[in-house]
């Protein structure tokens, strides 16, 4: 009897477990159906957004109308062979001989307009120039920065690092801006003639040294009466030959 009751209880447990499993499966299917139903409008809405975005008219970005700075140096509709170097790009002629005239193939840069001898617009042309690098040009063909921190009156004469730029109308090979070591050659406005005149007339009172900005030497000459005349005579000679200069190290005018 007890075995029969246990068997019945086991059957009921199995039926309950089977019912719960079926209920779980059905609830999972219902959830998936609900999610698909809710996701369909969203996907449709996304598709509508996508189709709307692709159907909108395409506006091209405005082209840049900025004019390069070199254009201001380039005369409009002038002869191509007479354009400044900043207005053209030339190929290197590797067969040119240093110091001799050579022909170079050139092309105008963008936004530059020039013509040939027949007043026809052209882009490719040739020019003749001396075969040499820019740093080998004469000193009159480039402009360099000046320095007021070096002494011009010294032995040996001091040099300074300068940055030089070739003039606009000069053609040359290589970089148009280059470094160079130059002698100190700046001036503070002192005149050699004034210094010499003061040394001859009022040198015994140290006027020449005061004028050149050498206060200690000027006071020494003043209180020693020009070194009893000997210092005065020596200063006349030194200023006359340019050995004694301004205290700031500049050159005479």
SSE topology:
Blueprint: H1 2-55, E1 78-79, E2 88-90, E3 101-108, E4 114-115, E5 124-130, E6 142-144, E7 159-166, E8 177-183, H2 192-202, H3 207-211, H4 215-223, H5 225-228, H6 230-240
Parallel strand pairs: 1-4
Antiparallel strand pairs: 2-3, 3-5, 6-7, 7-8
Signal peptide: 1-28
Protein name: TM2 domain-containing protein 3
Domain TM2: 189-236
**Count of distinct strands:** 8
Overall 3D form:
elongated
Rg, rounded, reads 46 Å
pLDDT average, as an integer? 78
Spatially, the strands of the biggest sheet line up as 2-3-5
Assembly status: single chain
Strand content: 15-25%
Overall structural class, as computed from helix and strand content, comes to alpha+beta
Order of helices and strands: HEEEEEEEEHHHHH
Roughly how much helix do the residues carry, as a percent range?
25-40%
Largest sheet: 3 strands, antiparallel
Report the uncertain regions: 30-63
What is the first-to-last residue Cα distance? 139 Å
Q: Given the structure, what is the number of helices?
A: 6
């Amino acid at each position: 009897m007890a075995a029969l009751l246990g068997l019945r209880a086991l059957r009921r447990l199995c039926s309950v477990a089977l019912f719960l499993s079926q209920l779980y499966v059905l609830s999972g299917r219902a959830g998936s159906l609900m999610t698909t139903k809710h996701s369909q409008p969203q996907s449709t809405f996304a598709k509508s957004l996508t189709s709307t975005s692709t159907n909108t008219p395409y506006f091209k970005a405005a082209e840049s109308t900025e004019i390069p700075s070199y254009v201001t140096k380039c005369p409009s509709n002038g002869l191509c062979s007479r354009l400044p170097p900043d207005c053209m790009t030339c190929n290197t002629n590797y067969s040119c001989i240093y110091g001799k005239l050579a022909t170079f193939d050139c092309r105008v840069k963008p936004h530059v307009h020039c013509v040939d001898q027949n007043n026809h617009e052209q882009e490719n042309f040739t020019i003749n120039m001396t075969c040499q690098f820019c740093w080998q040009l004469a000193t009159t063909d480039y402009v360099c920065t000046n320095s007021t921190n070096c002494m011009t009156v010294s032995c040996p004469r001091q040099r300074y690092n300068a940055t030089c730029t070739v003039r606009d109308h000069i053609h040359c090979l290589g970089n148009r801006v280059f470094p160079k070591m130059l002698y100190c050659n700046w001036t503070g406005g002192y005149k050699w003639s004034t210094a010499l005149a003061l040394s001859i007339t009022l040198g015994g009172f140290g006027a020449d040294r005061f004028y050149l900005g050498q206060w200690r030497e000027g006071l020494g000459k003043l209180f020693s009466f020009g070194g009893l005349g000997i210092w005065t005579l020596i200063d006349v000679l030194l200023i006359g030959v340019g050995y004694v200069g301004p205290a700031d190290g500049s050159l005479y005018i």
